[in-house]
Model the fold of this input.
Amino acid sequence: MSADSTPKPDAEFEAVSQFDLHQRMAETPGVAVLLLTAPACGSCRAMRAALLDLARSRSDLRLFEADAGREDGIVQEFEVFHLPALFVWRDGEYHGALQAEALPARLAAALDALLAAPPQEAP
Done:
């Protein structure tokens, strides 16, 4: 996958809930990354910062966020056992869980590897 390297200084997270997650992912062009997080989670804050850094360098990337404490339906559906948890869609198709260190370069490599594989069936 080739990512546009044009800087995107306005990168930010969009909130999603268990009620609009699937519709939002289906309607999102390009790559969508969902971050499941919690307010008191230090690792989540580090992942959030790394994803923002990554998104600033990739115009094809949109970031979404859900609070695992409030969105139990998402937590159960995706069988989340630890935070932060990341999930990826491209052009509305689910590609799976993203696992990487909270470093932009590591996230980019893991994301590219995940997107190189065919889409998966969503949970």
Q: What stands out?
A: DSSP finds four helices and five strands in the chain.
